[in-house]
Amino acid sequence: MTRFADAGPPGSWLRMMRVAVETGCAGVETLEAAAQGTVKAIYEQFQESMILARLFVTIPFGRLPPEIQAAANELATSAAQSTTGDTPVLALLGTYGDEESWRDRRRSRGHAGIPLVSSTFISAIPMLARLLEELGVDLKWFDSTDLKTFVEAGLFKSGSFHVSDATSVVDTQGRKVIAAQEFVLRHGVRTVFGAGAAFLGTPNMSALICFTRESLEPEVSQAALTAVSQFRAMTQGLVNSGKLIGP
To answer: For position 194, which CATH number holds?
Structure first.
């Protein structure tokens, strides 16, 4: 384990991230297992810096297990929205961090399944909006009555994001990008970074988000992009065969 600052130049971060993903994906039988293995390996590689690492995958609502569907429906209903079988849901498949409760996706409160039901809903979550915008997504696409068309056409691309100071960085509306300021202050979160990459020919996109206690330069987002691109390459076969979430 080490800190990013002690790992050498940014090029070393890319190599270490790639190795962590290879470790996490080795021998797994589902995308969920690969996601959990990946965030655990990344956390352990940079444990002195890392507070929490999470990996989400967009999965159509109709293909999710009942517990994630229920979580997504609860969020949608709370915003006077509704889901359909084609609604993309940002499902938490991997989570690992300082606290024991952060090491099991089933214990997540409020993040188990985030339904991408409309531009208004997404815009109300600054970090999610920032992530999708960095992936080149036009949020207005989610207002279409035929989401399936947009998703199959390649709605999700690849990209990265970096929030230099979780306590102060705001979006264009003056809102904190990291809205959970109680979490930020309690755990000493400094930099938040991540990346996303689409699985080829599918409606699925993976997104890695890391919360650190270390102030990091924007180059770290390229390490995240390297990691999530490696994750996509190593798990494309699982996605193609429909081996997404275990029992």
So the answer is: 3.30.450.40
